[in-house]
Amino acid sequence: MNNITFPSLQTTRDLRRANQQTLLRLIYFNEPISRLELSERSGLSPATVTNLVANLIEEKVVTSVGTEESQGGRPRTSLAINPQYGYFVGVEVAETHIYTALYTMKLNKIDDVHIDVSADDNSPEVIAAYIVKSVMSLQSRHAVPDQRVISMGVGMPGIVSRTGGVSIFAPNWGWHNIPFLDLLHQQLNISIQLDNGMQALALAEAWFGVGQHVNNLAELLLGTGVAAGIIIDGLLYRGTTNSAGEWGHTCVALDGPACRCGSQGCIESFIGAPGILRQLREVNSRHPALGLHDQQAMLRKLCDSAEAGDPDAVAVMTQVTRYLGVGIANIINLFNPQLIVLGGWCGVMISPYVVPRLQNIVQHYALGEPLKIVDIKVTRFGGEGGIGLGAACLALESFLVGQLP
Q: What CA–CA distances, in Å, run from 22 to 14, 44, 267, 400?
């Protein structure tokens, strides 16, 4: 006789929670929306939708925002996320700065705090203290108590254990297996989501940037470091250990220059900001760009010089374009995306020069079929705070799949 298993109370509760999460996501990204539209889009019965929406309204997560005329029936009530329900916080932890911002329910920025980080001031305890100081400052400025912060996302460099909140490997800082989430929780009594900053940025691009309505995309981050965030079938691809996307440490030159990760010939050593400036020093150690005060100023001068036809700058930027094109072709061949987004402060800064010149290189190295359907665009989140918004998306993600009653 076959064993017959009946759904348990826990299974029924899980199903209810999953259905409620589906409705919450639909409301968030499609508001204003009626109960009938929710039923049609979710495949749930009108009765189930009515019951679950009532719960969301009771919890003050969702609110009614007016009515719309229907054909041959009573006017339909439109639903939206309650803008007063709470706030999100997003933190971008970069090698040179920490950017923290307070956001509304719909991820509109309210205020932000910037703290510069020096090379000798990046211990885990110091970085955690900077974040705590920034968050508390924003809360104080806008009278936001802990209980009104729904969640805080933190985008970190390197490999991060998403479940354990451990910075497993941040090679540029020499961090190994740092329990960073614990350091934050020692001083902050709010929900915190810790993840790799590149993956956070890819999520922001897919939800709010040029990647909206695209199921398969690759977000390329060019800054001091280089990485990629991959969206496959609408979902962030993390890999087995949450380390997918370390595109900057794929080898493009077997006997190439040493990389900060300990290997040689990584693409980061050619198209990351330090690698670009290294190539400029090799071409002309006295170039005017090298005398400026920081990487961004140097790179901006280099790009301006290349546009003006300076032969040394043109030689460097031609080489950078070549390696970037090869790297993009590799991603096209591996993941077959519909869209590749060039991002990061360095990526955006060099984009006016490199993007018009990329096509021939990408065409040379990419396979014909996946090349036909791919588009290359520049991110909307090019300046400081892009990863901060992405980190806020991590917080939003936790809200959309959270443990609602």
A: 12, 10, 40, 8
Q: How many whole angstroms from its chain centre is CA 147? A: 25
272's tokens: 């990351």
DSSP state string for 49-113? HHHHHHHHHHTTSEEEEEEE--TTSPPEEEEEE-TTS-EEEEEEE-SSEEEEEEE-TT--EEEEE
Tens digit of each residue's pLDDT (9 = 90 or more) over 310-326: 999 999 999 999 999 99
Higher pLDDT, 403 or 347: 347
Rounded to 5 degrees, φ, ψ at 219 are: -100, 120
Q: Residue 305 corresponds to which tokens in the numbers above?
A: 């010089």
Of all residues in the chain, what percent are helix, strand and coil, respectively (each to 5)? 45, 20, 30
Is 323 in contact with 267 (CB distance < 8 Å)?
yes
Give the pTM.
0.83
Q: Yes or no: say if 189 and 230 are a contact pair by the CB < 8 Å rule.
A: no
